[in-house]
Amino acid sequence: MPINPPIRILQNLCSRRAHIVLTSLIPGRRCAEPVLPPNLPAQPTGDACADARRLTLMTVESSLCMRLHRPGETLVMEQRPVPAPGPRQVLLKVSACGVCRTDLHLIDGELPDPRLPIVPGHEIVGRVIACGEGTHYSLGTRLGVPWLGYTCGVCDFCSSGRENLCDQAEFTGYLLDGGYAEHVVADARYCFELPDTIDDEHAAPLLCAGLIGYRSWRMVEHARHLGIYGFGAAAHLIAQVAIHKGQSVYAFTRAGDTTAQSFAKQLGAHWAGSSDERPPVLLDAAIIFAPVGELVPLALQAVRKGGSVICGGIHMSDIPSLPYSLLWGERSIRSVANLTRRDGMEFLALAGEIGIRPTIETLPLARANDALARLRAGALSGAAVLIP
């Protein structure tokens, strides 16, 4: 059969050159086999979808990324070959990548055994430009890539719906190259399709700040009075969920951070003050997003008997010694680790339904170090998003 479906030429302009990506427009057809050399047929085969794959990548040669070589150092902008997707993987052209506090923990050496050199970034939005074997996304599909990048699928945790605790898990931007780059390869099984109502830049923070915030909130979703300590990227997203669900939110910030307190009130917080203040009522629960162990006893003091304190970060400074009386009365402390794909599907559907709107500041990829410095200094309201 001759090749006569329409082919669309997408010119993906960047600072150095134009990439030409050819994408099949055949309705309902999906390309599941590899599309990168050396597996491409050298000549047209007569099969329209196969021939569209053969032409998919013709001039993509190299890609920019921001790479960490040693903890404690700044990221370095480098050129690298465009990564090729393996089995069950997709290659994405990155359109936006959020800057997360976990990236700071990685760069500051607070996370053990990163796979160096590494490209950080795990709040990635991009579009499929190539597929590995066994992958069934259409070319051009918009996907989000989160922190959880791989699990074994067979251990007790994976088999019981707790894949976030898998001992063999691998994480984007930590053990797998992430989205501070023009292109990224990801396991298609751990990617999410995103709500059409949210653009690329605003979707990016949902993929970690939103997902970890959601998993933390699910543990206290029935609390009437909810405290949130550290009002940054995760807090400003999950506060919107809590307020939508009818909870009263009490926002705690650094002492004197009136900007963050005003921001919280603008989003609908019932009260906002510094972390060493007592709220006007006893809390039913509190979530701590700030990586500060000293906040744990303060939160316990603010929580009524039977309440919970949820530690929502991947890293926290040491929790100081505290009297048992703060914990007594069936109060509890619980941590949150990573996310599951179910968390992602639930939260992204909810975000689209209720219209969660992240507050963002966009910066070019080359200014990743500036974005990280501003995050470290507490100079961001909401989230920073890098645009390649």
Short précis:
The chain is 23% helix and 27% strand. It is α/β, with parallel strands linked by helices.
What is the share of helical residues? 10-25%
Number of helices, counting only DSSP H or I runs of 4 residues or more: 11
What number of structural domains do the residues give? 2
What's the name of the CATH homologous superfamily of the largest domain?
Medium-chain alcohol dehydrogenases, catalytic domain
CATH architecture level-2 label of the largest domain: Alpha-Beta Complex
CATH class descriptor name of the largest domain: Alpha Beta
Please indicate the percent range of residues in DSSP E strands (runs of 2 or more): 25-35%
- Contiguous uncertain segments of 5+ residues: 1-59
User: What is the CATH third-level topology name of the largest domain?
Assistant: Quinone Oxidoreductase, Chain A, domain 1
Number of strands: 19
User: What's the helix-strand series?
Assistant: EEHEEEHEEEHEEEHHEHEHEEHEHEHEHE
Distance from N terminus to C terminus (CA atoms, Å) equals 40 Å
Largest sheet: 7 strands, mixed
How would you sum up this structure, described in words?
- With 388 residues, this protein is α/β, with parallel strands linked by helices.
- It has two domains: 64-210 and 341-387, Quinone Oxidoreductase, Chain A, domain 1 (Alpha-Beta Complex); 220-335, Rossmann fold.
- The protein is built from eleven helices and 19 strands.
- It has helices spanning 48-54, 101-107, 156-159, 200-203, 209-218, 233-244, 258-266, 295-302, 324-327, 341-354, 368-376; strands at 7-13, 18-24, 62-67, 76-81, 89-99, 124-131, 142-145, 148-150, 170-171, 183-187, 192-193, 225-229, 248-253, 271-274, 283-288, 303-311, 332-335, 360-364, 383-387.
- Strands 5, 6, 7, 10, 11, 18 and 19 form a seven-stranded mixed β-sheet that branches.
- Helix 5 (209-218) crosses helix 6 (233-244) and helix 5 crosses helix 10 (341-354).
- The longest helix is centred in the last third of the chain and has 14 residues, at 341-354.
- It is globular, with a radius of gyration of 22 Å.
- 47% of the residues are buried.
- Mean pLDDT is 87; it is low at 1-59.
